[in-house]
Amino acid sequence: MSNEAATATTAAEAAPAPEPIPHGLGASLQPADARAKTEGTFPYAADLWAEGLLWAAVLRSPHPHARIKSIDTAHAREMPGVRAVVTHEDVPGSPLLGRGKADRPVFASEVVRHHGEPIAAVAADHPDTARLAAAAVIVEYEVLDPVTDPEQAFEAEPLHPDGNLIRHIPLRHGDPDAAGDIVVEGLYRIGRQDPAPIGAEAGLAVPRPDGGVELYLASTDPHTDRDRAAACYGLEPERVKVVVTGVPGATADREDQGFQLPLGLLALKTGCPVKLTATREESFLGHTHRHPTLLRYRHHADAEGRLVKVEAQILLDAGAYADTSAEALAAAVGFACGPYVVPNAFIEGWAVRTNNPPSGHVRGEGAMQVCAAYEAQMDKLAKKLGVDPAELRLRNALATGDVLPTGQTVTCPAPVAELLQAVRDYPLPALPKDTPEDEWLLPGGPEGAGEPGAVRRGVGYGLGMVHMLGAEGADEVSTATVKVHDGVATVLCAAVETGQGFTTLARQIVQETLGIDEVHVAPVDTDQPPAGAGCRGRHTWVSGGAVERAAKMVRTQLLQPLAHKFGMSTELLQITDGKITSYDGVLSTTVTEAMDGKELWATAQCRPHPTEPLNDAGQGDAFVGMSFCAIRAVVDVDIELGSVRVVELALAQDVGRVLNPAQLEARIEAGVTQGVGIALTENLRSARGLIRHPDLTGYSLPTALDAPDIRIVKLVEERDVVAPFGAKAVSAVPVVTSPAAIASAVRAATGRPVNRLPIRPQAAVVNAQ
């Protein structure tokens, strides 16, 4: 052998074996679309195109409240290039839409109830022509005084045929005469946050030869969107098809039906494909936002700091229409006392209509608002008692087997005390050095910070909880099909990938169950059975559960012939790394050999145990499962300028089971960062119902420079026995908890009450007297 050959052989022998590709549950499997998204080749809804495409534009009301006296579309119709103009008169089916309650018109006809409400839509051969034609529609208004204070909605004239009160929940739990030695009160206000979806809201409608229409949308709930569209168009649901295009990400309902439905109407009227890409201003005006909330609290505690009674009034501003406000109110009232043991609770909750921008589903709705308030109350109690804030929370921490104020027993893992102890005992970050090169560490950054001597550090705590899946009797069900052929598995499930990682999880489930590495998840459309909305972690539970059941059925089909041949049960066979082996080693073959060219498939459903609506006293087993989180926030506050820098957020969370470590950590970090925006910058302001600065200049989102150090101190893996895989939703509860923790830390730094979110600079200024 030559020296060169010997050297090559030695090098080959010395070369390390390639790293195995991670697969199955518990591995950090990379998302299938990660490369396309990072390279900019992922097809988003705004990238859609069709032959003979027309462009759409929507005319929206400039007033928050007005009576429509007349609509003149003649000038718009006569413009060159305009192919169609539609108003309320052109809606052939149901004129109303809405996610929770159908009370919102497709087009306003007699009354405008909020700024930006759709009046008419136009289709033209160029987007500029469409916008000009929409502006040419002449609407004569009689401007009315808007009702913008939710407290005034109780006495104001009805803004809607259904009245101003959407829902009232009077929760009664325990002894109304109970009283504590220590009483603290507070009034709290939570601002309006926008989901600010990444990428433009866009869609394409294509007419079908059978008189139906196909809608290509970044929908998060395609079957519900299809059914509403079909009702609006006066068509059978099977003649409307929704195809889910690339969803950039969603922390709420992704698309506004206020422009989805006009798209289909225009396509049906013109017989041509019609596309609409909303501007950022239209997004702010059209889609729903987090409910602004007013909260009044009174906490009673004994001399040791143990809670005796909580009294609260919670008022949610739903804006012009109901949407999901009834669900948000149930979460707010149900979790109004937080993850604490409260033997007596008396909560009044209302959701009311106003002429403010519409409110609806946003991650952690209801639970986020009350968390900010009850945690502020816990800080007040600790201060009045002279007790460490973390210690006070530990004395009252909820645990498995305790009873919520709704009367529901907590049967899922609830390691609240363990979570709080983990973040309390985690080492605090070092103090910044008083040197010029570290000026960027000060609140406000270089050139924007005051004197270092004006900076105060604060440490605060937040405990939060959310419910998973729907509540109050919602039928949570999902269907999935798993097919295997030629060593490749395909998953068909209408669960939309909104950034929560479902498609990656589905691949991991099939890999784990069938030992097949190559797994594809089919694109989503409404020809598949429904899987429900992509919110509250429900796809991890119900859709993941359906995929697992279907994969296990295929596994049985695969193993039964082998088990029969060797005279054993399928339970004695296992699949590992693509190989099928028996417990005694007699049988050893590959999955591919066992398939022998056959195609196997199975369809399965997953439906969690039922819940029930809250009764007239706010009592009932309304929630399927719950997730908990503890966060310790460290902030630096310039007490002269009121600027705040979040230094570190240490987090502990119960996750049930870690299914994908990298994905889970990313979801938690994203949720925490979203909470930073809620705490400090995000507030969609309006004046007398008019949205001010509906753009990303006037609405400040946190950037990478605003993100603090996020320390995931502990993940408690105590499996929930009723959940598939034992896993819990992870992204909503950090959003709920981090604003409360940050506000607590600002209170600790300044001694100010901090009773409003986002925290305004004047709330963090300490006057030198």
UniProtKB/TrEMBL annotation:
Protein name: Molybdopterin-dependent oxidoreductase
Pfam families: Ald_Xan_dh_C, MoCoBD_1, MoCoBD_2
Organism annotation: Streptomyces osmaniensis
Lineage start: Bacteria, Bacillati, Actinomycetota, Actinomycetes, Kitasatosporales
Bias-annotated ranges (Low complexity): 1-16
Aldehyde oxidase/xanthine dehydrogenase a/b hammerhead domain sequence ranges: 39-145
InterPro entries: Ald_Oxase/Xan_DH_a/b, Ald_Oxase/Xan_DH_a/b_sf, Ald_Oxase/xanthine_DH-like, AldOxase/xan_DH_MoCoBD1, AldOxase/xan_DH_MoCoBD2, AldOxase/xan_DH_Mopterin-bd_sf
Domain of life: Bacteria
Entries under Gene3D superfamilies matching the protein: Aldehyde oxidase/xanthine dehydrogenase, a/b hammerhead, Aldehyde oxidase/xanthine dehydrogenase, molybdopterin binding domain
Region (Disordered): 1-34
SUPFAM superfamilies: CO dehydrogenase molybdoprotein N-domain-like (SSF54665), Molybdenum cofactor-binding domain (SSF56003)
